[in-house]
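Please fill in the sequence for the structure shown.

STRUCTURE ENCODING:
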């Protein structure tokens, strides 16, 4: 399912006064629930949170557990106002892998509103798991 319109509305909620780079993410669970996230920057730069982890944290706060997350959708808009095709950063890939038990599909949107889907296992081979047998 294409979530460009929802993501585009969400982009305006990003808090990015330092980079001007807006990122919106929607997490979809296996049972169809959705959770929004945006990047929230901080004057203490490393405390900035990415849109993808923000969305996943909302899902976890609502009770989702590892394996519940099926999809992560991402749309970004650069400081020039143009859409930018943005893949999740390394830290977000790790969290997506953990919270989906390596099963999530990540949908990255381009300027035309089309998406391309990638399995998290392709985006982050050999993700770190404390209990790999689980
Ligand atoms: N950002 C995300 O929200 N997701 C990513 O996967 C990469 C980067 C944000 C963090 C920061 O607010 C802005 O993009 C520029 O790095």
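FILLED IN BY: designer on duty
SEQUENCE:
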């Amino acid at each position: 399912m294409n979530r460009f319109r929802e993501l585009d509305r969400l982009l305006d909620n990003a808090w990015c006064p330092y980079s001007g780079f807006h990122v919106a993410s929607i997490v979809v669970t296996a049972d169809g629930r959705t959770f929004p996230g945006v990047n929230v920057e901080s004057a203490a730069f490393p405390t900035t949170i990415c849109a993808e982890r923000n969305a996943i944290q909302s899902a976890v706060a609502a009770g989702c557990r590892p394996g519940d997350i099926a999809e992560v959708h991402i749309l970004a808009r650069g400081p020039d106002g143009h859409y930018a095709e943005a893949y999740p950063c390394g830290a977000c890939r790790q969290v997506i892998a953990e919270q989906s038990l390596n099963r999530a599909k990540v949908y990255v949107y381009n300027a035309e509103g089309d998406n391309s889907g990638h399995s998290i296992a392709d985006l982050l081979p050999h993700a770190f798991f404390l209990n790999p047998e689980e």
